Amino acid sequence: MTASGDTLAKLPPAELISLTPDVFTQPFWDAAVEHRLVVPRCTSCGTFRLPPSAFCWSCQAQEVEWIEHDGRGAVYSFTVIHHPLLPELADSVPYVPAVVELPGTNGCRLVGALTDVKLADVRVGMGVGLVWRDVREGETVPTFRPSGS
């Protein structure tokens, strides 16, 4: 059965979300638990790099500073998942994973599911705002909802 355009996007079940932070991503996830979005910026050349990485893609330096961002952005790309690939997803479709471009970060993008949106309203360029989803104690992931702008 295909969902209509009036259908609201759903979220995947928390039980299927598994985070595996490392030394380079841990500050991102620590801030997420506090419902803060931080983006690493190279202290050598000023390049933002998201996802966090061991080396700056521009100058190969390792040191970063973590800059707070308000989480507003625009949908860069998305897909609508109608068919569950796992039985555990059967009640969670349709869901809409999206790539959101964060202004002021020289093109950094963050992946998160869209929520509180009708499928027919989702489009590239749509303004969105960050909504934190606490999936369990100590684990929080970014999701996005339309910002109305």
Write structural notes for this entry:
By secondary structure, the chain is mainly β. The chain has a single domain, classed as OB fold (Dihydrolipoamide Acetyltransferase, E2P). 5% of the residues lie in helices and 32% in strands. The chain is built from one helix and seven strands, in the order αβββββββ. It has one helix at residues 26-33; strands spanning 37-42, 64-69, 73-78, 96-101, 109-114, 127-136, 139-146. The strands form two sheets. Strands 3-4-5-7-6 form a five-stranded mixed barrel. A two-stranded antiparallel ribbon has the order 1-2. The mean pLDDT is 94.
Give the topology:
Elements: H1 26-33, E1 37-42, E2 64-69, E3 73-78, E4 96-101, E5 109-114, E6 127-136, E7 139-146
Parallel strand pairs: 5-7
Antiparallel strand pairs: 1-2, 3-4, 3-6, 4-5, 6-7
Keywords:
single chain; mainly beta; OB fold (Dihydrolipoamide Acetyltransferase, E2P); 7 strands
